[in-house]
Design goal:
Number of helices: 7
Number of strands: 41
Strand content: 25-35%
Domain EGF-like: 291-327
Oligomer: single chain
Catalytic activity: L-seryl-[protein] + ATP = O-phospho-L-seryl-[protein] + ADP + H(+); L-threonyl-[protein] + ATP = O-phospho-L-threonyl-[protein] + ADP + H(+)
Number of domains: 6
Domain Apple: 345-433
GO molecular function: protein serine/threonine kinase activity
Strand order of the largest sheet: 31-32-33-34-36-35
Protein name: non-specific serine/threonine protein kinase
């Protein structure tokens, strides 16, 4: 009896021990996530909220709904483990969202990895050839973030059948191979992982961001050999190039760093077409991104169009050029660029000197003695659009010996022009017609990209002294306007409307409740304030500025038409035909007074012939007597014919009644 009781106690102890082991195993299975899917029973269900977690707990795979989504669409994706907010790096069914939680992710009977709905619909599949041995296949989530689907039939060699790294969505991770056929495609929106319109890829050895697969949005190329540009940083380029054995970065000569240095790095293509380079230390931080503004977009203002982030209207044509499509330009579409107002290639050519510019890559470069030789070389080629002389020792490069002067020649259209870009680059000389830059006699020389029409004046040698309120900074090419309130940057000048715009920082105006009211701005004749345009915090997506401080106001100022030009000798009136230097106002000022039978036309800025007290060169010209007599006779004939026809018609009607 004692022995039988002892056996029962032993059985109870054994049962308790087995229960504890089973509970511990079940606890282990529940609390320690798996990283592998096998056939046939192991699957991930939406309704069970299951997931795979990589062995080192770096990445997690499961079903999710985008955090900013307003509808209950479900996707299978991979994200950084326990990231908050969730950082998704890959999406399987990005173009086929699940409508509800009735789906699972598993290995199917034909040996494919598939997202299947309980109604039998497949929402995503690896689409491999079917196999009779699906039991040998497994899917494993690695610590690199790569989902690997492989065949384990061969115990000595595992065959990778498919991997997510070869089919990325919008994110590039360490271990991926940047090849010509690899492409990142942006999400449609922050709430929708559907394929968007932007793609990033390697195209003929250069990295590009495309819109709808054919429009270049941004490309990683240098502006020119000596004009600075925002290229992809070396670390990011090495990350992309050195993860592949087939493509090498020709600009990188150091030892290839081990892949572990990039473990906490990722590259992402944003929904707005922005390529982002992220690095993780204690938190994720954005190291670099492009295009960083509207001027960084590929050829933002089109051919011969210049971009300026500091102006409300970012694009404008170079002096001597006009919009190729004025209507598109007015509607804010600048990609069509600008065309020449006059043909060049002759004795009437000159060069517009532009400073602080960015410009696309030149077509030719060669050694030259001095800047005169470089200028002559451009003038001797009708195809030459611009040149730049780089003095030895300036912007030294590894491929150029110090002390060698270089001449850069552009024979194609000028692209990617941007003003106020760099203080260290050389000057760019753009070929233009003299007639297009010196619009009127005594016009001042262009200041950078600004043409200064008469009567506006930057000094005593040009313009009209009454309008001498402008200053040109020859070192930067920037034009400013001096008033009683201070000195302000000139953004644009419009000769046709006789207006120009200046910029004034005005945070109070943007923050005040009187933002819609006209502000006061003290001006004296011949200038008057026309309008003001508050430009408060920059709105994302607008083709505008990088100024996003408290606010900027662009003030539109007009000028009164000028009187006859001031002169001190007859020589000063040689530029004004049919005028003589004399004082008829008796105020001590000599002016180029129009000769007899001529009068000053302040619109034409010239002396025009006077006929019976009217300007003979304008629309106000009196009509010739012969024209008036001719019109009168024709009118009499027409009226007489109508009267005669009416009389005949009435007589015929009267005869019919009599009959």
């Amino acid at each position: 009896m004692a022995r039988r009781g002892l056996n029962q106690r032993d059985l109870r102890a054994t049962h308790s021990m087995l229960s504890a082991v089973f509970f511990s195993y079940a606890f282990f299975l529940c609390c320690f996530a798996r990283d592998t899917i096998t056939y046939p029973s192991v699957a991930i269900g939406v309704d069970r909220q299951e997931s795979l977690v990589s062995a080192g707990k770096r990445f997690e795979l499961g079903f999710f709904t985008p955090e900013e989504s307003t509808i209950s669409t479900i996707y299978l994706g991979i994200w950084y483990y326990k990231s908050n907010p969730r950082i998704v790096v890959w999406v399987a069914n990005r173009n086929s969202p699940l409508p509800d939680d009735g789906a699972a992710f598993a290995i199917t009977d034909d040996g494919n990895l598939q997202i299947s709905h309980r109604n039998g619909t497949s929402y995503w599949s690896t689409e491999l050839a079917s196999t009779s041995n699906p039991a040998y296949r497994e899917a494993k989530l690695l610590d690199s973030g790569n989902l690997v689907f492989r065949d384990t039939n061969n115990t000595l060699l595992t065959t990778i059948l498919w991997e997510s790294f070869a089919h990325p969505t919008d994110t590039f991770l360490p271990g991926m191979k940047m090849r010509e056929n690899l492409k990142l495609i942006s999400w449609e929106s922050k709430a929708d992982p559907k394929e968007g319109k932007f793609s990033f890829q390697l195209d003929e050895g250069r990295f590009v961001i495309l819109i709808n697969d054919y429009i270049v949005h941004w490309e990683d190329v240098e502006s020119s050999d000596f004009f600075n540009s925002e290229r992809m940083p070396d670390g990011m380029a090495n990350f992309l190039f050195n993860t592949t054995g087939s493509v090498q970065n020709p600009n990188f000569t150091n030892k290839t760093p081990p892949p572990s240095e990039y473990n906490n790095t990722r590259i992402r293509l944003d929904v707005e077409g922005e390529l982002q380079y992220w690095n993780f230390d204690t938190n994720w931080s954005l190291q670099w991104f492009e295009p960083r503004d509207n001027c960084s977009v590929s050829n933002a203002c089109g051919n011969f169009g210049s971009c300026n982030l500091n102006n409300m209207l970012a694009c404008r044509c170079l002096p001597g050029f006009k919009p190729a499509s004025p209507e598109s330009w007015r509607n804010g579409s600048f990609s069509g660029g600008c065309s020449r107002s006059s043909a060049v290639c002759g004795k009437n050519d000159t060069f517009l000197r532009l400073k602080m510019m960015r410009v696309g890559q030149q077509n030719h470069k060669f050694k030259v003695e001095n800047d005169t030789k470089c200028r002559e070389e451009c003038l001797n080629q009708c195809s030459c659009q611009a040149y730049s002389f780089v003095k030895g020792g300036v912007n030294k490069r590894r491929d150029r010996q110090p002390g060698i002067n270089m001449c850069l020649i552009w024979t194609d259209v000028l692209q990617d022009l941007q003003e106020e870009y760099s203080y260290s680059g050389p000057d760019l000389f753009v070929r233009v017609s003299i007639a297009d830059t010196e619009l009127k006699a005594k016009s001042c020389k262009p200041c950078g990209i600004n043409v200064i029409p008469y009567p506006l004046s930057t000094g005593s040698d040009c313009g009209d002294p009454m309008y001498s309120s402008f200053h040109c900074n020859t070192s930067t090419g920037k034009l400013s306007f001096k008033t009683q309130n201070g000195t302000y940057n000139v953004a644009t000048i419009d000769q046709d409307t006789r207006t120009f715009t200046i910029q004034d920082k005005d945070g109070d105006h943007c923050n005040s409740s009187t933002g819609g009211q006209m502000r006061e701005f003290n001006l004296s004749l011949p200038f008057k304030m026309i309008d003001f345009k508050p430009w408060c915090d920059t709105v994302a997506g607008n083709f505008g500025s990088n100024i996003s401080s408290q606010g900027v106001v662009e003030i539109v100022i007009g000028w009164e038409p000028p009187a006859e030009p001031v002169c001190t000798s007859p020589a000063d009136c040689e530029d004004w035909p049919n005028s003589t230097c004399k004082n008829v106002t008796e105020n001590g000022k000599m002016r180029c007074q129009c000769n007899s039978n001529f009068r000053w036309d302040d619109m034409a800025l010239n002396c025009v012939q006077d006929v019976d007290g009217h300007s003979g060169g304008s629309s106000r010209k009196k009509k010739p007597l012969s024209l008036i007599v001719g019109v009168t006779i024709a009118s009499v004939i027409v009226l007489s014919s109508i009267f005669l026809y009416t009389c005949i018609l009435m007589r015929k009607k009267a005869k019919r009644r009599g009959n």
